[in-house]
Amino acid sequence: MGSHASRDFPNKSPYPLPFHHLIESLRTLPGIGIKTATRLAFHLLKAPEEEALQLSREISGLREALVLCPQCQNIMDRDSRLSCCTICADPARDPGTVMVVEDIQTLYSIERTGEFRGRYHVLLGRLSPLEGIGPEALRVRELLDRTGTGEIHEMILATSPTVEGESTALYLARLFKPLGVKVSRIAFGIPVGLELEFVDDITLIRSVEARRPM
Ligand code: ZN
């Protein structure tokens, strides 16, 4: 289904080259096949110029406009007057409870449930000996620094229930428990092997509520 360019355009693309290139670029986006890509390209062609320009500016300026929060590694507005992200800066959130996640997308999945009132730490990856990803490639040092200030007393490990996610959780539990941090692992009512970002909100809430000590 739409994954082979040769099959999608049997002979040669019927479109002018710039339009063809736009379709091909849109197709590289996740979940976008040839039909959707073509529909989006026609939409952009018909849309008011300002709308298309706005979209193009937002895409091209995205990386420049964002930096990582120095505390939790979440993304934040480069122009922000805060020295950290809005979650870390929120005085209503418990700084002592930290949810550790593999990626920024999972942080926002949990945030969307509106149930968690602590803070986060994004590892920006997970341990994978097969791919040569060791602890030094993750933001573990930053987590140690945060723990060193004595502020963190509970750590909830919310890495994915995959082999890599589990070994990452085990590694962190072994590292932080001797430092006097209460470490727990979220429970899973979901198929093992599934990436957390694809889990529905209710399952995610239950998983955090039913976390178990490590
Ligand atoms: Zn932050």
TrEMBL record:
<comment type="similarity">
    <text>Belongs to the RecR family.</text>
</comment>
<dbReference type="Pfam" id="PF13662">
    <property type="entry name" value="Toprim_4"/>
</dbReference>
<dbReference type="GO" id="GO:0006310">
    <property type="term" value="P:DNA recombination"/>
</dbReference>
<dbReference type="InterPro" id="IPR023627">
    <property type="entry name" value="Rcmb_RecR"/>
</dbReference>
<dbReference type="GO" id="GO:0006281">
    <property type="term" value="P:DNA repair"/>
</dbReference>
<feature type="domain" description="Toprim">
    <location>
        <begin position="96"/>
        <end position="191"/>
    </location>
</feature>
<dbReference type="Pfam" id="PF21176">
    <property type="entry name" value="RecR_HhH"/>
</dbReference>
<keyword id="KW-0863">Zinc-finger</keyword>
<keyword id="KW-0233">DNA recombination</keyword>
<comment type="function">
    <text>May play a role in DNA repair. It seems to be involved in an RecBC-independent recombinational process of DNA repair. It may act with RecF and RecO.</text>
</comment>
<dbReference type="InterPro" id="IPR006171">
    <property type="entry name" value="TOPRIM_dom"/>
</dbReference>
<keyword id="KW-0234">DNA repair</keyword>
<keyword id="KW-0479">Metal-binding</keyword>
<dbReference type="InterPro" id="IPR034137">
    <property type="entry name" value="TOPRIM_RecR"/>
</dbReference>
<protein>
    <recommendedName>
        <fullName>Recombination protein RecR</fullName>
    </recommendedName>
</protein>
<keyword id="KW-0862">Zinc</keyword>
<dbReference type="Pfam" id="PF21175">
    <property type="entry name" value="RecR_C"/>
</dbReference>
<dbReference type="GO" id="GO:0003677">
    <property type="term" value="F:DNA binding"/>
</dbReference>
<keyword id="KW-0227">DNA damage</keyword>
<dbReference type="InterPro" id="IPR000093">
    <property type="entry name" value="DNA_Rcmb_RecR"/>
</dbReference>
<dbReference type="GO" id="GO:0008270">
    <property type="term" value="F:zinc ion binding"/>
</dbReference>
